[in-house]
Each structure stands twice: as C-alpha cells, then as structure tokens.
Amino acid sequence: MKTVDLLTPNAGLRVFISGAATGIGAAIAEAFLETGASVYVCDINPAAVEEMKKKNPAIHVGVADVGKWEDVDAVMQDAQDKLGGLDLLINNAGIAGPTGAVEDITPDAWDKTIMTNLNSQFYFLRRAVPLLKQTSDNPSIITISSVAGRLGYQFRTPYASTKWAIVGLMKSLAIELGPDNIRVNAILPGVVEGERMDKVIAARAEALGLTFEAMREDYVKKISLRRLVTTQDVAAMALFLSSPAARNISGQAISVDGNLEYL
C-alpha cells in the first residue's frame, strides 16, 4: 500500500459520534461521510439533529441527553442495529460549563459539567468497547478533550477538570485495550472558530470586565501561529487517527491549537 493510501480511513468504516449535530462533531461527521464511512450521530437538540439529517440524508441520527446513561444506552442500541457493529467511537459531546470564581460556581453547575463532559464518556465506552472488540477493521476510540486538558484555565475550573480527566481516561484505556488491538487517543482542540467559542469569550470578557473584542484579541495573542483553528482542522486530525497511517499511534493527547502557549 502506498503511503498516501494509508492516510484515508477504510471505506465503510462504522462510526459513532456523540454531540455531533453542530460544531466540531458535525464537521467530523461530514468528513467521515465524505470518505464513505457509515456514520451515526446523536445530539440533545432535536431540531439540530433533524437539520443534520436533512443536510446529510445518508447519516443515521438519534436524540440523547448524554448525561443520562439510559439515553446513551438507547442510541447505542439504535446505532448497533443500523450500523451492524462499530469500528470507531468518537466521544465528542461536551458543554462549556460555568464561567466564574470557584466560590461563585453552584454545585448544580459543577455537577452538570461533570455529567455531560466526563460521565457521558464512560456511558458510551461501556457500550462501545464490546462492539469494538468484535471488529478487525482498525478499531479505535477518539476522545475529544481540549487544550484546557493540558493547561490551567482560571474561572473555568469545572470545564478544565473534566478535560484533564478525559486525558487520564484515554491514557488508561490505551493500556487496557491495547492487547485487544483497540487504539485510544485524545484530540485537544484549541480556540476553535464558531458560535460556541464566541459565547465562551463573551462570558470570560464579562467576568474580567473587558469588551468582547479585547478578550478575543487576548486569546489570539496567546497562540504562536496567531490564528484560531477551525472545526475542519479538528476533523482532519480525527480522519488521520482513524486511518491505517495511525495504526501504531495510541495513548496520545494530540493538540490541534496553533501552539496555544497559555490560557
């Protein structure tokens, strides 16, 4: 096989992506569809799920609150029925969580962030791993963490805590599942262009008493390449990690962030 051929995931790969009706997840889903993969996505927003299906008729969709294991079990069973198995799980679902000093964060806001960002990863893994053990088509897991999973992030402690935990989960699973030929890696996106990041910047600007424009410029100055990343940048990394070219890459936390120096 030529080196260039190694860079494309196998056609017909069966892929499940959580939280993928919009943003990074949607970009990843559409990238895999373009390679000929069979893709199932879930999201909490029924309208966004319907729009995703309308835009990509070949995709399989489901609605789920990923913080509820019962919802996760339901969509995973639906995905198994429709895909006929699983070759790749991408644990993408997550929320920004609250912005504020630790003493001002409510227990409910903390718990919701943990449930959505971290507990959901476990809920999907417990259903996906048995399916991945049954396939020989380069099985793997990609967990979406964040650059906040390698750097401290003031006023965003719930979010950062979950993203660090996801890296620990990935590292442990890479060891646990390696003998079953299942690779596990994490992608750590940096400051990603889009509506979600705009909301994060706005909330942080308010917390620090700055304008949105000043806060955005502050983010850009922290990036060595002096530009934000796109959802397509993250999708490209997901394609690579699921391709034959990455057959010996496991247990890695890979940043896609333009070299974000600090938060």
The percent range for strand residues is: 5-15%
Order of helices and strands: HEHEHEHEHEHEHHHE
Helix-strand makeup class:
alpha/beta
Instruction: Return the CATH architecture.
Output: 3-Layer(aba) Sandwich
Number of helices: 9
Pfam families: adh_short_C2
Protein name: SDR family oxidoreductase
Organism: Herbaspirillum rhizosphaerae
InterPro entries: NAD(P)-bd_dom_sf, Sc_DH/Rdtase_CS, SDR_fam
Structure characterization notes:
Belongs to the short-chain dehydrogenases/reductases (SDR) family. This is SDR family oxidoreductase. The protein has 263 residues and is an alpha/beta fold. The protein has one domain (3-191, 230-256): NAD(P)-binding Rossmann-like Domain (Rossmann fold), CATH 3.40.50.720. Helices cover 47% and strands 13% of the residues. It has nine helices and seven strands. The chain has helices at residues 3-6, 23-34, 46-55, 69-83, 107-132, 157-177, 195-208, 212-221, 231-241, and strands at residues 14-18, 38-43, 60-63, 88-91, 140-144, 183-189, 253-256. A seven-stranded parallel beta sheet has the order 3-2-1-4-5-6-7, with helices on both faces. Helix 2 crosses helix 9 (231-241). The chain is globular. The protein starts with a helix and ends in a 7-residue tail after the last strand. The mean pLDDT is 95.
